[in-house]
UniProtKB/TrEMBL annotation:
Entry protein name: F-box domain-containing protein
Name of the gene: LOC112291281
SUPFAM superfamilies: F-box domain, Kelch motif
A Pfam family recorded for this sequence: Kelch_1
UniProt keyword terms in alphabetical order: Kelch repeat, Repeat
Organism: Physcomitrium patens
Amino acid sequence: MGIFLSSARSPEHETSIANSDSTKRQRMSVENEQQPAIIPGLPEEIALQILARVTRGNHPLLRCVCKSWYRILSTSEIFNLRKELGVMEEWLYVLMKDEEDHLGWHVLDPVEGKWRKLPPMPEIANIAKKTDAPETSWGWRIPLGPLRMMRLTGLFGGWFQRKGFLDKTPFCGCSAGAINGSLYVLGGFSWASAMRAVWRYDSRTNTWASSAGMEVARAYCKTGVVDNKLYAIGGVDRGRGGLTPLQSAEVYDPETDSWSQVAPMPFRRAQVIPTAFLADMLKPIATGMASYNGKLCVPQSLYSWPFFVDVGGEIFDPATDTWAEMPNGMGEDWPARQAGTKLSVVVGGKLYALDPTSSMDGSKIKVYDSEQDVWKVVLKKNAPGDEMVGAHFL
């Protein structure tokens, strides 16, 4: 069964606190004096703090109590208050395919230890559908992203080579990011065409709504958040000869609900291919991305099915709108050194990457040491069924 995952930080985690004088946070006052108290007999400030301390998994029940609770729990202020109180929760969002090839979002509540199914995404097939679209013949193919839980051979053999798969699976190849209390789902394929469409899931109201579309139609793009703005980099579009890689990049500002172009990826390593034949055959593609130290780190590869050649990577600085070549150790040794998406995450200011099982050595989790420009193993699984061996570090 083919499954692909897309993780996003909890919208609460991405919600920024109000300005520096937030200690004098504007209270959510009742608009009309005739409206009932939030909790009868208690001052409003105390009542708000009580509601804020209730776990997120119980918010749907709280909204059913009364209109005032529904209104309060549907605003960003209650999320800001939860952040001030230090009671935030991180939820894991997963996009997976069911037995009928339909994609749907699920979320893990780590506090309750329960999986919850989100409402289905709006049907957009009528937006991108092309009734005269010919049968798809792919000239070259890309790995699944932003996270995957299957081997590359199974991916291409079971999905892209399945006749008409993209024609019946909207949102295949979409990407995701979380900002301002919302989960954003970007692009992907619908009826074998890449899309500009962006959909936003609001965890406060448990509803989907459309947001401003990207300036470039793209699927399998890489996403990252810096300074509360969402970046979409690379990906592919459908060309005459199959899938065409993209070097363009753009940024979304949730305050204005708008996208704007940023400097495209230069792919400097792609310019030093030894022969013109290889330059024509191998196409540059971003194979991962991580928001690290206020910048976007993008490992890259040259690609032509079934061949991958890792070529290090580049780092984008949003403050200057410029790209720089990634340090040698960081780029050349970024796990995994094999065909497929680079799986990485930043936790506590440290950059981690998964080196999946590819031999008898087993799977490994590595952390990047920026001072020494090396990747170090922090967790290892020697073989199927063996216990994980960890290394402690500060």
